[in-house]
Design goal:
- This protein is α/β, with parallel strands linked by helices.
- It has a single domain, classed as Nitrilase/N-carbamoyl-D-aminoacid amidohydrolase.
- Strand 6 and strand 7 form a beta hairpin.
- Helix 1 packs parallel to helix 3.
- It starts with 12 loop residues before the first strand and ends in a 23-residue tail after the last helix.
- Bound molecules: ligand LYUYDEPV.
- Ligand LYUYDEPV binds next to helix 5.
- The site of the ligand NC(=O)CCC(=O)C(=O)O has 10 residues, from helix 5.
C-alpha cells in the first residue's frame, strides 16, 4: 500500500521471530525445515498466538556470494499486479504462501536469492511477505549490499553477484504499517526514518549479522532505529549453527520505542531494566522461536512524552526524507 494513505492505527499484536537453524547446502531440506518451524511458531502454547511470523535473511541457501546464483529463484512479482502463486516458478514462494495460508498468520518470509524475471542476469537478496490468505502482498529487494572489508576479520562483497534493490517497501496489516529492510539496510538510518515518517509504527528486517559486527552493533542498531524513529524495531537472524562458512550472530530481537509511562519503574535497577526494559525479547544463538507482544500504549507514550515527531525544525535543516513515498 502506498504511504500516502493513512496508516492503520496500531493495535496490540504478537510477533514471532523464527531464529532458524540447520540452513544447509541442501535446499530440499531447508524448505521443509523452515515450514516445520513456521508451524511450530504458529502453534505456540502458554502465550498469545502470533499475528505475524518472521524468518531470517537467506534461509533457503547458505549465505555466501558463491551460492546465490545456484539457489536463486524467479519470483516475478510486480507491485499492484495480480500474482498467481499456483503458477509461480518459485518453490520457496509456494512453500511460504502455503504456510501462511495453513496457519492463517501474516508471514515475513525472510529473504532468498532472487533471479530477476525480466533480466535473468540480475540477482537480488529478496524478502517476500504473505497475508494470512497466502497472497504475496509485497517484496523488498535489499537496497544496500553488504560490502565490507575489516582486514583479518571479515571481508564480504554481496555486490560480486547481487544487484541492490531500488525501492522502499512497506505493507499494511489490520494491526500496523510495517516497514521492510534486509540486514545491512539497517546501517542506513534514512530507510527506517522514511518508513517511520510514512506511517510505519513497526520496522522489521530479516538479517544475518556475523560474529565480528554482531557483538559490536546488533543491539545498538536496534535501539538506535527504535529511539530515533519512535517505532518498534526488530531483526530476525539465523541461528549460529553452521559448521563452516558464515557464522550468524543470532540474538533475534524486538525493541520498543521506550516506555515513557513506566520509565521510573524501569530505572529501579540495571537488572530490571535489562529484563523488562526496551529489549522486549531476545533469542540466544541457537535455533529457537521468540515472541514479543506489541503494546500500542508504549508507542503512544513515547510519542506524546518525547514529542520529537512534532518538534522538527524543517526551517533550519533541509528535510531529505519529507518527500519520500513508498513505491515498488
Ligand atoms: N547480511 C548482512 O547484510 C550482514 C550485515 C552485517 O553483518 C553488518 O554488520 O552490517
Amino acid at each position: 500500500m502506498a504511504a500516502s494513505t493513512e496508516p492503520p492505527s496500531l493495535k496490540p499484536f504478537t510477533i514471532a521471530l523464527v531464529q532458524l537453524g540447520q540452513v544447509t547446502s541442501d535446499k530440499s531440506k531447508n524448505l521443509p525445515h523452515a515450514r516445520e518451524m513456521i508451524l511450530k511458531a504458529a502453534s505456540r502454547e502458554g502465550g498469545r498466538k502470533p499475528d505475524l511470523i518472521v524468518l531470517p535473511e537467506c534461509f533457503n541457501s547458505p549465505y555466501g556470494v558463491m551460492h546465490f546464483l545456484l539457489y536463486a529463484e524467479t519470483i516475478g512479482f510486480t507491485s499492484g499486479q495480480p500474482y498467481d502463486i499456483k503458477t509461480s516458478q518459485s518453490e520457496t514462494v509456494k512453500m511460504l504462501s502455503g504456510a501462511a495460508k495453513e496457519t492463517g498468520i501474516w508471514l515475513i518470509g525472510g529473504s532468498i536469492p532472487e533471479r530477476d524475471a525480466s533480466d535473468g542476469s540480475k540477482l537480488y537478496n529478496t524478502c517476500t511477505v504473505y497475508s494470512p490468505q497466502g497472497e504475496l502482498v509485497t517484496i523488498h529487494r535489499k537496497i544496500h549490499l553488504f560490502d565490507i572489508d575489516i582486514p583479518g576479520k571479515i571481508t564480504f562483497k554481496e555486490s560480486e553477484t547481487l544487484t541492490g534493490g531500488s525501492t522502499m517497501n512497506m505493507f499494511d496489516t489490520p494491526f500496523a504499517r510495517i516497514g521492510l529492510g534486509i540486514c545491512y539496510d539497517v546501517r542506513f538510518p534514512e530507510l527506517a526514518m522514511i518508513a517511520a515518517r510514512s506511517g510505519c509504527q513497526v520496522i522489521i528486517y530479516p538479517a544475518a549479522f556475523n560474529m565480528i559486527t554482531g557483538p559490536l552493533h546488533w543491539e545498538t542498531l536496534h535501539r538506535a532505529r527504535a529511539v530515533d524513529n519512535q517505532a518498534f524495531m526488530s531483526m530476525c537472524s539465523p541461528a549460529r549453527d553452521s559448521v563452516e562458512g558464515y557464522q550468524a550472530y543470532g540474538h533475534s530481537m524486538v525493541v520498543d520505542p521506550m516506555q515513557v509511562s513506566s520509565l521510573s519503574h524501569r530505572l529501579c535497577s540495571k537488572e530490571s531494566m535489562n529484563r523488562r526494559g526496551t529489549v522486549l525479547t531476545q533469542a540466544g544463538h541457537l535455533e529457537e522461536v521468540v515472541y514479543a507482544d506489541i503494546d500500542p500504549a508504549t508507542f503512544h507514550s513515547a510519542r506524546t512524552g518525547i514529542p520529537v515527531t512534532t518538534q522538527r525544525r524543517f526551517d533550519v535543516y533541509p528535510d531529505v526524507s519529507r518527500e519520500a513515498r513508498a513505491v515498488m
